[in-house]
Structure of Dipeptidase:
Amino acid sequence: MSTTPAPDNDVRAYVSAHRDGFLGELAEWIRIPSVSADPERAGDVRRSAEWLAAKLRETGFPVAEVWETAGLPAVFAEWRAAEPDAPTVLVYGHHDVQPAARADGWRTEPFEATPSDDGARLYGRGAADDKGQVFFHTLGLKAHLHATGRSAPAVHLKLLIEGEEESGSPNFPALLHERADRLAADTVIVSDTGMWAADTPTVCTGMRGLIDGQIDLYGPDQDIHSGSFGGAVPNPATEAARLAAALHDADGRVAIPGFYDGVVALTDRERELFAELPFDEESWLRTAHSHGAGGEAGYSTLERIWARPTAEVNGIGGGYQGPGGKTIIPSAAQLKLSFRLVAGQDPEKVQQAVRDWVAARIPHGIRHELDFFGATRPCLTPLDDPALQALVRAMSKAFDGAKIRFTREGGSGPAADLQDVLGAPVLFLGISVPSDGWHAPNEKVETDLLMKGAEAAAHLWGELAAGTRTAGGEEVQQ
Amino acid sequence: MSTTPAPDNDVRAYVSAHRDGFLGELAEWIRIPSVSADPERAGDVRRSAEWLAAKLRETGFPVAEVWETAGLPAVFAEWRAAEPDAPTVLVYGHHDVQPAARADGWRTEPFEATPSDDGARLYGRGAADDKGQVFFHTLGLKAHLHATGRSAPAVHLKLLIEGEEESGSPNFPALLHERADRLAADTVIVSDTGMWAADTPTVCTGMRGLIDGQIDLYGPDQDIHSGSFGGAVPNPATEAARLAAALHDADGRVAIPGFYDGVVALTDRERELFAELPFDEESWLRTAHSHGAGGEAGYSTLERIWARPTAEVNGIGGGYQGPGGKTIIPSAAQLKLSFRLVAGQDPEKVQQAVRDWVAARIPHGIRHELDFFGATRPCLTPLDDPALQALVRAMSKAFDGAKIRFTREGGSGPAADLQDVLGAPVLFLGISVPSDGWHAPNEKVETDLLMKGAEAAAHLWGELAAGTRTAGGEEVQQ
């Protein structure tokens, strides 16, 4: 990037000037223990929603509503651009948090917001996931208005901040369907992910999809004696194991016929960009609490977790699992499987492929049932997508012209629901770093990065408004 | 067989004349609820031992002692032949029983002894397993003395009736070792098995051995997220499944190198004899509570359960087994395996083969532990064994000259301990039939078969005394 133009300095100056006030308000929000998993905290989740709606109104949103669901409430806000033909952008985040207790190993009160001595970090549950990353949009929006002299954002801006993300978003798809008209957008910005590292700013371009389910296998009508009958009747625990073992071939590829149908392959450019990231396998293994890396042949660890579909055994059980031995052939066994999907895979088609594969492998004398719990579609934005390029420009401005690299998310989330129900591409604007400790004790956020997030958001609305006109002729930012 | 000689009629007449008295005393014994698995019944198990010792003294045994163990007591009795060079025979059985409660589905009180209306059956816990089959030896011995005019048996007769068989005989090997001198015998007669059917008298010629153990597999130090890490680290549940699935090849043979080393193959004659048994697969499957037969290619169901070694998964567990899904890679998994062994296999060598095989299959990043719970040797008596031929002659006399066929036991039991510690061949004299319902509600014994058991025992001592001299020149009884 070349020199930073003047308005950007206005953004930086505005954000800096309002840093302390912003952090003070974020601390106030963190003190509301909006733990969606704990029924006793339902009142706090509601208080969190109301607090946020009030702050959004204070920020200037003409519309800021608490939306009821069958579970815990979400917050919706809308501020339309002055230009009727401006693009519509929906920001997604969540205001609920993971459970946290001092006894889990927190060095500070999790529902206080405690700055480090040098002020570089703010500790507290939700500091990064996701209150900090939702709240920087308020500062970013004010900086955008200030720096551009606008009285309304350059895009029709909508926010949808859900209250059950940490509980698996059980009511989120229904909410999207019910409110699809009001949520309609050209682009979705998800602010619930992170970057590679503080000195390696990145933009996430996709998430894997997911189907998971359970196979129950039934053999003898009751546990039978392995001496009297062993060797002469099929054993459902053995059959469950055979299914699990047959999931992969010798190269670590999923061996279910049709599984890879439609998979969007990594481009050479994407592989090059992944390979440029400063990946340290030893350090990654520590993060994974694991003692060896391994998987599909021909792919790097990052490619395996970000861009390749997988089959995993989440649970297996059958027969005697107590202490010592019991010489039985069990009457039943169970296998819980999950499949991460990548762009191009259709969850329903993969489910059918799994059904067919299982059915063909069950021997005479074993009955089986197969149930899927759910399906989340994968999402992926191509590197040359104009909205993605706008996001990259905004990030680069916030990070002083740094090269913005690309990551993906191995997990699966509501992003795909947004993409599917709203029919809009999903982009990810997040500034959290791996050391922030999501879901763990001593969650924190880097306060400098929160400011970068606010700056990126401040730049983004103008870039997006301009992006649809200009992106076609620009070079792809790496 | 030719016509039955006169002394046999004396045996039959004696047994018939004492039938009612015998059944009355057996009923008394059944009323003692000697459930070894129930600590609250320990006093009853002791009472059962004392009752039996008293009855054996009444029968004429000069020695009848209650033997203490680290657990529940056994009974030992000895009655020496007049001829010093007579062979020594040790009868094995057990006086403890399985638990039983009316609520389990019993139509009569399990610890009463209730005859059927026609007197053909006696219902009660232990009627067949094993009180009835131990107790017929008292009637048989008296008939033997009466019919031969002897004042002592034709063999040096010893009885060892254990009190913990239904609890896995935890203290039996120690007892055998401690008392090996007093238990020394040329032949062991186990009366704790059965026959093919009431109209198909059979003699069991062997039992399978057993090793069983547990493999623990450890992957990540804690459950990890299948999205963030799935596809890039080894999964211990998958590895447990791969081990279980690799136990057998496509022909159902155990695929562990060295597993079949030394296996004594079925002879053509044995296979012919097995094939002659009136085996009905549908009926057998009902007994097995199973819905399909299958196993090692090239063998019949009877061959598979009686004469071929096996590997079975008794239990498998790892990861999430609750309701619904949980998208994790589990930190650990467990596999419980048992291997039935046949004559010629050395349990310790098979254990080593399993250890080597497992160690070679565990991938980088997975740690494993393998523990064996125990080892029971297989036992098998060749069809031309002189003592076996003596038993066959005794059975044939009891069953009116019927052809005696051969079976084996698929299970594993203390017979092998007797064989190993005492260094004596083990024969099986049992008259129970599959419908007797061992370990099940409404256990019963066929009273006519109890009398046949007593008759066979009465004939056996003379046959065994004569057998060592004459068996070499006799034709194999089929």
Residues 6-207+378-473 of chain B form a domain with the Aminopeptidase fold (CATH 3.40.630.10).
